[in-house]
Amino acid sequence: MSNVCGHSLKSTIVIIFHFPTKYPQPKGQKKKKIVKYGMGGLIIFFLICIIWFPLLFISLVRSVVGVVNHPIDVTVTVKLGGYEPLFTMSVQQQYIKPFSEDEYDQLAKEFEDNAVAMQFIILYSYEDIVTAMIEGSSGSVWRISPPSRQEVIKELLGPVDLTLRLSWNFQRDLGKGGTVEHAFDKHSIDLEPGNPVRADLASLLVGNRTEPVLVPSMFPKYIRAPNGAEAKPVGQLHEGNEAGYMDITLSLNSSGNQEWWDIAIANCYSSECGVLPMVIFSDKYHGAVCVRGLRAALCGPHSQALH
């Protein structure tokens, strides 16, 4: 082994000493610019390619395939007219469950006889869908003053039109793509004078009723969440459009001086009534991922990331 190392070292020394003789180059002679800048430029170019090409390649792949940015927070609110919300509930990621292949197959089987619904479903894979499991018990107490409470009862029993509104808000993580953090929409029911829901709610507030109040066609189960700010119900998956929304019940609970509202799915199994499932179809995002990826690939990491 020592002989090999010694021979290698001797050969290297011989080459170093004989190089100027074989390839004479006058000392101090200025090299041509084309040689100097050409060789240096090529070396820099190859270094850039080696370092940044993987980033560029990954960003291009992501821009073509697309990225699904599911909601990280889902908030549902129910309001009666302009008064304090009756119900507010937010769920985070642990209650926003990804769809499985079996659930996707069950969904397709449920609508297999509906060609319009199937045309919508096949636009998405199971990875594009999540189910937000919204707890039916309000996350906040109903803070309404006695005068406002009496005003609500008066309006419910009077000739004035009232609106019962259910709204939803989806929050996304912009770090995963997209330009709009919140997507939202609402569904409203006009409670005209004579509507039985008005009288039932008034009886509930007065204290003459303890049974939940049935509100028909109130809760849309299927929502499409595109990359914009609107998250509208999927009309193709609700038979009769708004008429196909789920019926719910409203009940008022109290403990001491505190009151809160509960929402439940009407006519369901007891173990499932207290949870409102909202199935969310998220569109893949392409545009900004490509731009951000190209910028990162061409410009390199942010200077603060190097510290």
From TrEMBL:
MF GO annotations: mechanosensitive monoatomic ion channel activity
Domain of life: Eukaryota
Pfam families named among the record's database cross-references: Piezo_cap, Piezo_THU9_anchor
Record domain Piezo THU9 and anchor: where: 21-59
Keyword Transmembrane helix: yes
Matching InterPro entries: Piezo (IPR027272), Piezo_cap_dom (IPR031334), Piezo_THU9_anchor (IPR056770)
Gene Ontology cellular component terms for the protein in this record: membrane
Domain Piezo non-specific cation channel cap: 96-287
Transmembrane segments: 37-61
Protein name as catalogued: Uncharacterized protein
